[in-house]
Amino acid sequence: MGAYILRRLLLVIPTLLGIMIINFALVQFVPGGPIEQIIATLEGEGDAFAGFAGGGGEASMGNSGNDEYAGARGLPPEFIAELEKEFGFDKPPVERFLDMLWNYMRFDFGESYFRSISVIDLVLEKMPVSISLGLWSTLIAYMVSIPLGIRKAVSDGSSFDTWTSAAIIVAYAIPGFLFAILLLVLFAGGSYLQIFPLRGLTSDNWEDLSLLGKVADYFWHIALPVIASTISAFATLTLLTKNSFLDEIKKQYVITARAKGLAEKQVLYGHVFRNAMLIVIAGFPAVFIGVFFSGSLIIETIFSLDGLGRLGFEAAVARDYPVIFGTLFIFGIIGLVVGILSDLMYVLVDPRIDFERREG
Fold first, then answer.
1. Residue 335 lies in a domain
2. What is the pLDDT of residue 245?
3. Which residue has the higher pLDDT, 271 or 19?
4. Does pTM surpass 0.70?
5. Residue 15 lies in a domain
6. Same domain, 104 and 129
7. Same structural domain for residues 231 and 295?
8. What is the pLDDT of residues 213-247, one digit of tens each?
9. What is the spatial distance between Cα 331 and Cα 337, in angstroms, rounded to a whole number?
10. What does UniProt give as the signal peptide span (predicted)?
């Protein structure tokens, strides 16, 4: 197993390098770089993309020269050159890319172009919201879906199985943002009840609350966003659990265990559970990281939560390249490492799995 893990860790380097090269290359062809953003602001346009609607702008991250920037005709060439030097755009793209990788290898992710804060500090600032949504959404989905899937497998074909399947499929079909708006209208001061707050992760007086009051205030604010982001997560996990149990229940060792006179609970939780839960439990790290880092932009916007979803969107719109590439690098490493952890979870849940023997 050690050799397998070492090989997987070594594959992280070329995989991450490929991700960075592809994204950096694509950015070179995207119009409206950070200099265009500044020029548009100085010219009073407020939007660097206004000039592209008529096909007049051709600036991108790799552009240089004051005549290449739409709207820059009224600005001194020296000012444009100074901007290029400040942002590092006076260098060729290859040199900028190599400098960026060298800085990332030293864990120097730079500073946001427009926020005057380091990328690491910016990510840490937004992380509580994403942790809250990702952690609680994943835990609630597992806590509901696993028992429900087991119950559906045991009572396969019954009326309970039928109506619960219909319910989770309907929930899966409801768009998260539409359900979030419905929750706001019904429970957050819309046309009906005003039980939950409209925005934010905590109240304005959070610092003045007691420890118990802070915990209650936190869950009070996070309740609706978590419900909205979890509503569609039950279907896949529940049906996966049910099908896994059905496959295991039909196997010979279960028939033998029942023939020995074991109680149904002993058969289900003593023999079937570990084998049936292999896929479900082993996939927990990947599921959590997926929910955590995907950061639902729409959910965060509806509930006025400042998380990683909004951070990524705002960085892309503003062409804040240090934030875009810094977060891409950090999350890329985490995602690749989580893939390795998922394999380790498979071995932990079922020691019979041997990746080295399968590769051989």
1. yes
2. 85
3. 19
4. yes
5. no
6. no
7. yes
8. 888 988 998 888 888 888 877 888 888 888 888 88
9. 10
10. none
Q: Phi first, then psi: what are they for 76, rounded to 5°?
A: -65, 140
Give every CB contact of residue 122 below 8 A, 6+ residues apart in sequence.
Answer: 112, 115, 311, 323
| Cβ contact 85:64 at 8 Å | no
Q: Do residues 184 and 87 both lie within one domain?
A: no
**275 and 354 together in one domain:** yes
The answer to whether the CB of 31 falls within 8 A of the CB of 317 is no
Tokens representing residue 313 in the block: 């969107």
